[in-house]
Amino acid sequence: MTTLTVGGQGFRPYDVVVGRGLLARAGERIAPLAKGRTVIVSDETVAAIHGQALSASLEAAGVRTQTITVPAGEASKSFAQLERVLDRLLEIGLDRKDVVVALGGGVVGDLAGLAAALYMRGIDFVQVPTTLLAQVDSSVGGKTAIDTPRGKNLVGAFHQPRLVLADIDVLATLPDKQLRSGWAEVLKHGLICDAAFFDWLAGDGAGGACGDPAALERAVVRSVEIKSAVVSEDEKEAGRRALLNLGHTFGHAVEAELGFEKAALAHGEAVALGCCLAFRYSAREGLCPEADARRVEAVIAAAGLPTRLDQAGTFDADRLLALMAGDKKAEGGALTLILARGIGQAFVAKGVDASSVRAFLIEEGAAG
Ligand SMILES: NC(=O)c1ccc[n+]([C@@H]2O[C@H](COP(=O)([O-])OP(=O)(O)OC[C@H]3O[C@@H](n4cnc5c(N)ncnc54)[C@H](O)[C@@H]3O)[C@@H](O)[C@H]2O)c1
Ligand SMILES: O=C(O)C(=O)C[C@@H](O)[C@H](O)[C@H](O)COP(=O)(O)O
Ligand SMILES: [Zn+2]
């Protein structure tokens, strides 16, 4: 088991505990934070598989608990579900000493975290991430949000959890597609700033993408270390935190274009494709060796993730560009992209020329 601490400078520090068998004993760790009651927010799938273990553990630790569920899937990151969750919290009558516990993937974490940020102007919440993606990424760092038809995560708040419990054992029930989706965010961390980690993920650690628990645990710990170091120094994305968005300006545009209701592509799949696009665009602009862009594509493809636009659907370059211009990193209508000088060497590029991105998207197969 590994305990990492996030924060300490700009915001109150909290622990991220990574290990095995954590769910069954979660109550012991959550009880000191919950002076009153807890409400577990989960999705219907996760609640059916893991909900009972968490509520039993809370009750055994003397913490009263109730559960609210939302439908599984990206479509639950919506105004409608946010309103429903807030209304249920009011009906249950939580007060400011009570705690929301998010049990699920990034959808549940983002939605429950935002509800906790808004409820009575902010109450505590704990993340119990049950997808690989949520363990390596979304449960850490305090970004919470819902989607709108105009784009991903455009309505949200920074609200840090009080505790994160990442139990590797719960990943055993995760469908392969979701394991691969989480693996994309793991690979992203290597691509941003740790070439040796990327090499390990592509070689000895590759079993993680197929569910090997030892490789998964190491991948989760290293990912949380990387993410924690970044968000601890730049909570609200004034600078360096934007690096964690590698692959996301392209990826979020693809997700929005495909529609959040259908969510044909899982978030991590869109990020994998987005990382390939970011590296190929970097190579096209002479910023990054072609060989690195090719290697990124090969490693991502070997993990069973998409690398080309036509694997995701058919796209129009102008529609994708319009969505990219609405990204939260854009400044005065000018594009900000996370580009790379090589594997492990991502950087923030502001004022990127939209016409060159448009030409690139057309070269990549989007309609002009
Ligand atoms: N806040 C952040 O920093 C951050 C970071 C990355 C991604 N995100 C967001 O996270 C979301 C994606 O999260 P996700 O990939 O976890 O998707 P998800 O929450 O939709 O979970 C994927 C699917 O797996 C199921 N599932 C979850 N845990 C399971 C388990 N242990 N066993 C069986 N089934 C299980 C869920 O019911 C769901 O159907 C996106 O909305 C993305 O924008 C946020
Ligand atoms: O934590 C961050 O910062 C990230 O960018 C992590 C991303 O993987 C994640 O998908 C995040 O939700 C994207 O944030 P957004 O600000 O682009 O909506
Ligand atoms: Zn992401």
From TrEMBL:
Domain 3-dehydroquinate synthase C-terminal: 182-330
Keywords: Amino-acid biosynthesis, Aromatic amino acid biosynthesis, Cobalt, Cytoplasm, Lyase, Metal-binding, NAD, Nucleotide-binding, Zinc
Cellular compartments annotated: Cytoplasm
Binding site for Zn(2+): E185, H248, H267
E.C. no: 4.2.3.4
Residues given in the record as NAD(+) binding sites: G106, V107, V108, G109, D110, T130, T131, K143, K152
Catalysed reactions, semicolon-separated: 7-phospho-2-dehydro-3-deoxy-D-arabino-heptonate = 3-dehydroquinate + phosphate
Cofactor annotation remark: Binds 1 divalent metal cation per subunit. Can use either Co(2+) or Zn(2+).
SUPFAM superfamilies: Dehydroquinate synthase-like
Chief location bin: cytoplasm
Keyword Nucleotide-binding on entry: yes
Domain 3-dehydroquinate synthase N-terminal: residue ranges: 68-180
Pfam families (UniProt xref): DHQ_synthase (PF01761), DHQS_C (PF24621)
Pathway: Metabolic intermediate biosynthesis; chorismate biosynthesis; chorismate from D-erythrose 4-phosphate and phosphoenolpyruvate: step 2/7
Cofactor(s) recorded in Swiss-Prot or TrEMBL: NAD(+); Co(2+); Zn(2+)
Molecular function GO labels: 3-dehydroquinate synthase activity
InterPro entries attached to this UniProt entry: Dehydroquinate_synthase (IPR050071), DHQ_synth_AroB (IPR016037), DHQ_synth_fam (IPR030963), DHQS/DOIS_N (IPR030960), DHQS_C (IPR056179)
Classification via CDD domains: DHQS (cd08195)
Annotated HAMAP family: DHQ_synthase
Family membership: Belongs to the sugar phosphate cyclases superfamily. Dehydroquinate synthase family.
Function, as annotated: Catalyzes the conversion of 3-deoxy-D-arabino-heptulosonate 7-phosphate (DAHP) to dehydroquinate (DHQ).
UniProt name for this protein: 3-dehydroquinate synthase
Originating species: Brevundimonas albigilva
Gene that encodes it: aroB
